[in-house]
Write a structure and sequence with these properties.
By secondary structure, the chain is mainly α. About 80% of the residues lie in helices and about 5% in strands. Strands 1-2 form a two-stranded antiparallel ribbon. The protein is elongated. This is Integral membrane protein.
Length: about 130
């Protein structure tokens, strides 16, 4: 167990907030966004549904007085993999987004990568919880 640094706590909370907002946008607006971005509507909707659970989990983590290090590492590694997968999606032939769609994917990939880095820095600043 660790006592999260203020940076880790705030990075988790911000990640949850931004992920929740993105979930809301994607779940409610997948139909309108798909043609604007030239991305498949099911991809947008399913991503939004996943982000609902993710935002709830990360938000919960951000409120804990003590955290299990493996759960924090799961979030950090997950964010790093999300960033890489987002770029890999653009490089693959699985989708053919337009310029706005490419910008949408790149911007969210950068944001997720920044969260991963902030969470990692916050984890390094956290201290181990004393075992009683």
């Amino acid at each position: 167990m660790i006592h999260p640094s203020l940076l880790l706590r705030r990075a988790l909370q911000a990640d949850a907030l931004v992920s929740g907002a993105m979930a809301l946008l994607l779940v409610t607006g997948a139909g309108a966004l798909a043609p604007m971005l030239a991305l498949p509507q099911p991809l947008l909707l399913e991503t939004g549904l996943f982000l609902i659970a993710y935002a709830a989990f990360v938000g919960w983590l951000g409120t804990r007085a003590a955290l299990q290090r493996p759960l924090v590492l799961l979030v950090i590694i997950g964010n790093a993999l999300w960033t890489l997968a987002s770029i890999a999606l653009l490089l693959s032939s699985a989708v053919a987004p337009n310029g706005v769609g490419i910008a949408f994917v790149v911007i969210q990939a950068i944001a997720v990568g920044v969260f991963a880095e902030l969470q990692y820095m916050g984890l390094k600043r956290s201290r181990s919880a004393a075992l009683i």
